[in-house]
Structures are given as structure tokens and as C-alpha cells.
């Protein structure tokens, strides 16, 4: 196992948080040495299971892994190497499990990229994608002629102030009493204790870019529109179970009116948007700090069937644009830090848990390497992030890699028994949206 030995760092003592058995099981920081052999797992693979379905074997392995927790007596991560050839032409699968207390998606992806090199140029680091922050108010132009250049700043700040006040109040209401509609995908009490089924589907990032450029939006807006379309189709089917199928149209469907369905969306609050260089994040004098530097945003979805597939995208763009004209993420991050200082981790965690419980799903969208990369000589075919332990029954992750986009679902099967069907609905929604753009000559 030469590839495993390559992962060995020096055994320099570091600090890790462990359970203090002598003090009622409370957590404390101690100095420890990292022994990689205790973190790497290479399970024995049943050849009979592989002949039946290698993909299903990997899926079940991760499902069973989500039934367990990380050993708190050592640094909170482990690496599982599965010698399994899957249908996507991969020679093996590596499952890296890390506790979210180690960092947010940006931190962990930065750490991963630091361990990779370009496949075509093994001596070069993978490209660090940098997302330029767009102007959240295109109509706000100081260079405008006439009186508008004087009124534009006033209008901009008034709208920003109003949107922020409304969003923060809605966030506080959600923490206290405001719940989403009880739909077939809404998590049940105790859902965070259930194991998770993680499934993924790779689609074309170029297709998403085609829609993005045609409708003047971001990849994130396209992802939100695809989710909105896919969930509408899926929920229409679930609400229609046992009923006669009369066709699914905008005016004839099984969806209740005025469904409140929201996603908790984590926003990177670092000075530079996108993935950070690991060296920069480790520098004590930089503003791009390691850790969980994210704010929470409650993103509503309009659940309704649309005869025009582009309506899903337009609605998602409007919702996203509205959220960009708000400081909700900054205020929720600041409120969380204040609560942590005043009341401690337990009460703050309880409030956060209540907010997640009152919403329906979680969503994230991370940018990956822009070229094919290898990890210690092993070419990467795809990256599929997921998580478990959250109270929502559904989490949707979008992860780009070169010219591919991976849609990853982490579901509680007691609530969503057919995650592959939901994946198919998302994939077909993207196809319908792209086809509509092409047919109308918008690209």
C-alpha cells in the first residue's frame, strides 16, 4: 500500500479536542500525535457483492458508515479506501470523512486541493478557482447621467436595509416558531439520528454554463432553478400517490397551494469569494482564516409546476437576486458568535438545530478544480461531497470538477425512499431547461 504511506505527515504534536472522562465527558483540548495508520481503513471486499453491483456496494458502505460516529479520542477524520471498480470507470473509491468542526466547505476543499497536483503537470498545484463578487445591484451606477446618480445610492441603501431587516426577523421567527409546510420530504423528529443514503449523478457543467450565459445569471442561480424544478416534479408525484394520473401541468397538478419550503444555505464570508489557497488560510496575518467562516441564509423555493421550464430559472434568479441585496448572512454569523459568547456552545447549538429542524433541506454549491487533478499519483474522476447528522431529511450538494457538475443527495430513507428518482428528476429538469434555451435560440 505505497499510496497510503504517502499520506503520512511528520508526527509533530498538534492540538485536538477529546472527551474528558474525568469531567463528566466534557470536551477539552489536548496535545496529541497523529498516527495515520489509525485513521486509514482498507476494508475487505466481498467479491460476490462486487459482481452483483459495485456501485451499490459503495453506496451501502457509505450508508453503513453514516451509522457510526468518529472516535473522539483522536483527530476527527478517517479515510476509507475501497478497492472497487465502479461504473464511472474509477479503479477505486476513497471516502474521506471529516467532522464539520474542523472547518466549512471552503476550508476542507482548500485542504483537499493542497493535496492534489495537475494530472497533466504533476509538478504543478491545481488551479485555485476564484469567484469574482458580482455587483449585487446592476442598476446602482454612480456614473449614471441625470438625477438618478444622486438617488441611486439612496435607493440602494434603503432596499438593502429593508431586505436585511425582513430577513433577520424571518430568521428569528424560524428559530422560535415558523415552520415549513409538512411535505413528503420534510424531516421527522429525530431524523438527524438516522443513517443517510448518499447518491450522486454527474451532469455537464457546460450545459449549466450555456443556461447561465443565455439568461445572464450565475451557476448558483441555475442550480437553484434546477432544484426548484426537480423538487416540484418529485413532490407532485409524491402528493399524487394513490390518485388517478390526469397529467402534470401548471393548471392541473397534485401540489397544494402556498407550500412553504425553504433551504438553509451557507454563505462563505471570507474577504475573497471561492476556494482559498491553503497557505493563505494558514497565514496568521491574512483575513482568509481557516475554520467555519460562514453565515446562514434561509432560501425559499416556489414549489409549483411550470409549463415553461425557463420559469423555474427566472424565479430562482429573482429569489437569489433578492438575497444578494441583503446582509442576512453577515448578521446571522454575528448573532451566532454573540450567542456563543453569551450562552455557550450547547444553547447556541440548540438554537441552530431548531432553525434547521424548521426548514426542509440544506443546499451547498462548491467550485472544484478547473483541470483534472491527481491525489498522490491517483487520477481523480469525480468529487462528491455529502454530510450526515443534520435534522433535515434532504441535503443537496453541487460540486464542479473540470467540465462536470456532480449533484449529490444525502437523504433519510425513512422520509425519501427513492433518492435515485429524485436525482433523475433533477437531471431531467436541467435537460428540459437547456433544451428550452437552445430551441428558442437564446444561446
UniProtKB/TrEMBL annotation:
Coiled coil: none annotated. The keyword Acyltransferase applies. It is found in: Cell membrane; Endoplasmic reticulum membrane. Keywords: Acyltransferase, Endoplasmic reticulum, Transferase. It is a single-pass membrane protein. One of its GO terms (cellular component) is plasma membrane. Pathway: Glycerolipid metabolism; triacylglycerol biosynthesis; Lipid metabolism. It catalyses: a long chain fatty alcohol + a fatty acyl-CoA = a long-chain alcohol wax ester + CoA; an acyl-CoA + a 1,2-diacyl-sn-glycerol = a triacyl-sn-glycerol + CoA. Residues 25-223 form the O-acyltransferase WSD1-like N-terminal domain. The keyword ATP-binding does not apply. It holds the Pfam family WS_DGAT_C. Residues 290-434 form the O-acyltransferase WSD1 C-terminal domain. GO terms for molecular function: diacylglycerol O-acyltransferase activity; long-chain-alcohol O-fatty-acyltransferase activity. One of its GO terms (biological process) is triglyceride biosynthetic process. It comes from the Eukaryota. In the N-terminal section; belongs to the long-chain O-acyltransferase family. This is Diacylglycerol O-acyltransferase.
Amino acid at each position: 500500500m505505497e499510496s497510503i504511506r504517502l499520506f503520512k505527515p511528520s508526527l509533530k504534536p498538534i492540538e485536538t479536542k477529546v472527551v474528558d472522562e474525568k469531567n463528566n465527558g466534557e470536551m477539552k483540548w489536548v496535545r496529541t500525535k497523529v498516527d495515520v495508520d489509525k485513521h486509514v481503513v482498507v476494508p475487505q471486499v466481498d467479491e460476490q457483492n462486487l459482481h452483483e453491483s459495485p456501485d451499490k456496494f459503495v453506496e451501502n458502505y457509505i450508508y453503513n458508515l453514516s451509522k457510526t460516529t468518529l472516535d473522539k479520542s483522536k483527530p476527527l477524520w478517517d479515510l476509507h479506501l475501497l478497492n472497487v471498480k465502479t461504473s464511472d470507470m474509477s479503479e477505486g473509491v476513497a471516502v474521506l470523512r471529516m467532522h464539520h468542526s474542523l472547518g466549512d466547505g471552503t476550508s476542507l476543499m482548500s485542504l483537499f486541493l493542497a493535496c492534489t497536483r495537475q494530472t497533466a503537470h504533476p509538478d504543478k498545484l491545481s488551479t485555485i478557482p476564484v469567484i469574482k463578487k458580482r455587483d449585487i445591484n446592476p442598476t446602482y451606477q454612480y456614473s449614471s447621467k441625470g438625477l438618478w446618480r444622486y438617488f441611486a445610492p439612496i435607493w440602494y441603501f434603503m432596499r438593502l436595509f429593508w431586505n436585511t431587516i425582513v430577513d433577520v426577523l424571518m430568521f428569528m421567527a424560524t428559530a422560535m416558531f415558523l415552520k415549513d409546510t409538512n411535505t413528503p420530504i420534510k424531516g421527522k423528529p429525530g431524523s438527524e439520528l438516522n443513517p443517510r443514503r448518499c447518491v450522486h449523478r454527474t451532469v455537464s457543467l457546460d450545459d449549466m454554463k450555456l443556461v447561465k450565459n443565455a439568461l445572464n445569471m450565475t451557476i448558483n442561480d441555475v442550480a437553484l432553478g434546477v432544484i426548484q424544478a426537480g423538487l416540484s416534479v418529485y413532490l407532485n408525484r409524491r402528493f399524487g400517490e394513490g390518485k388517478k394520473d390526469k397529467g402534470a401541468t401548471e393548471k392541473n397538478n397534485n401540489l397544494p397551494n402556498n407550500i412553504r419550503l425553504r433551504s438553509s444555505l451557507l454563505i462563505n464570508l471570507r474577504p475573497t469569494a471561492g476556494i482559498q489557497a491553503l497557505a493563505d488560510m494558514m497565514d496568521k496575518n491574512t483575513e482568509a482564516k481557516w475554520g467555519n467562516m460562514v453565515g446562514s441564509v434561509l432560501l425559499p423555493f416556489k414549489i409549483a409546476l411550470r409549463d415553461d421550464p425557463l420559469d423555474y430559472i427566472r424565479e430562482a434568479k429573482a429569489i437569489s437576486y433578492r438575497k444578494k441585496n441583503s446582509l442576512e448572512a453577515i448578521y446571522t454569523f454575528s448573532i451566532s458568535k454573540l450567542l456563543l459568547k453569551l450562552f455557550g456552545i450547547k444553547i447556541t447549538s440548540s438554537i441552530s438545530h431548531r432553525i434547521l429542524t424548521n426548514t426542509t433541506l440544506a443546499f451547498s454549491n462548491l467550485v472544484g478544480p478547473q483541470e483534472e487533478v491527481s491525489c498522490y499519483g491517483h487520477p481523480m474522476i469525480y468529487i462528491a461531497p455529502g454530510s450526515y447528522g443534520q435534522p433535515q431529511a434532504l441535503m443537496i450538494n453541487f460540486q464542479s470538477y473540470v467540465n462536470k457538475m456532480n449533484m449529490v443527495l444525502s437523504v433519510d430513507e425513512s422520509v425519501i425512499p427513492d433518492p435515485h428518482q429524485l436525482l433523475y428528476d433533477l437531471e431531467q429538469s436541467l435537460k428540459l431547461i437547456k433544451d428550452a434555451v437552445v430551441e428558442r435560440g437564446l444561446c
